[in-house]
Specification:
This protein has two helices and 34 strands. It is mainly β.
Amino acid sequence: MSNKKIVADSSKTYSEPFRPQFHFSPEKKWMNDPNGLLYYKGIYHLFYQYYPEDIVWGPMHWGHATSTDLIHWKHHKIALFPDKLGYIFSGSAVVDVNNTSGLGTLKNPALVAVYTYHNMDIEKAGGINAQSQGLAYSLDEGENWSKYQGNPIIENSDLKDFRDPNVFWNKETNTWNLILVSGDHAQFYTSKNLINWTLESEFGKGIGAHGGVWECPNLFKIKVENSIDEKWILLISVNPGAPNGGSGTQYFVGDFDGKNFKTDQKDTKWLDNGADNYAGVTYNDAPDNKRIFIGWMSNWLYARNTPTKNWRSAMTLPREISLSKINNNYVLKNAPVAQLKSQLEKGFSKNLLVLKPKQKTTFNYNNLNQSQIGFSADAKTLKLVFSNDVKDSLVLNYDGKQKTFSIDRRHSGNVNFEPNFGKSIHTTATPNIISETIDYQIILDWSSIEIFLNGGVYSFTEQIFPKKPFTKLTIQSDENQEIKNISIHKIKGIW
């Protein structure tokens, strides 16, 4: 009997209720932060926080998947298991091309992962220094990993939160840089060999959002669009303390000399203004100098309670990050990678839709929960309502007078699994929308919506759990309004 049950269950993988059809999710069990994002020999590696025994958080491993196009994913065996030094928390991975570590050769360079150990024995004994940094390496392009014999490579004497190392090769200084977070600030290290690290500086005390502990730093250099200038970006996830409660990712725009990060930024800037984009980091060595980002599509307020059965959590769509100047202010944009276009199947299109005040226009479309909706609209008030025949509704609203955008998922289906999930309308001020029209890109999967305004000047990521798929889209405005080039595409599944 049990064998039959296992076969039946496995045949239904990726077709269970709420299972994402074109976002990465593990075949089974619990997943959180993306780790070790690395491009090497045509392959995008995605490692991630993984607990193979249950659909709630437990002793952390590194799961592993790969892709050649950032859209279709191949599952691999678990890369890193806990050991006597602790659980395997978040970190990053690099290719040691010059064999600075001596762990590989120039012909066959090692893939090197640097991660946080979390020692439960120390924590249970009341010790504060349960976290340290470890190293593992692979000599077969990421399939098998060996732990470094001299772990930990960075010890911890007196910090409770001391984690999430982000490593990269700094071409300007010909050295390795590592950034980790310790409670309310980031620490910056240098190394010649990935093994021996020197603490150079700290950043962040009293700067930016501090509603909770800092996590998952990521530092990279990026060109400013339509300019010869370049700036350094520091991503920092913070939990709690995000604009819509719980977990979120802030960013700082500044300068980095290889040892010190400095910014004159006064305001707090958020990468994504939805409730469900956390712990995201970017790829090392992505082709064409692109900066590709993936986030964990959840929020610690309710991550352990979402209504899924065999697995829990998904990643955001991979997004390309760019830096713009709007109103003399730096704005970090993020929008889905171009490869997503290959998954689109034409569903519906119309060149011009004229809206009259208070008049509703409704589209019936069975695949709304696996679709991309795109259009250009006047920068006036506009309301979109996704609904189904069991009275679930998801409401998006741009307020042209107040210059705000809101998402109302309070009646979007299954919302009662945790009090915070459907508690309030999520509203964001949008001062960086300065154009007379707004380009909308809205992407729905079986349990998520991602919204991008003006190519990602603002992005919003939210989980949704409708009781049945949405089949109706109603558009309305309280002003005369022109909607141009509206299209609805079905998005092909990747599994």
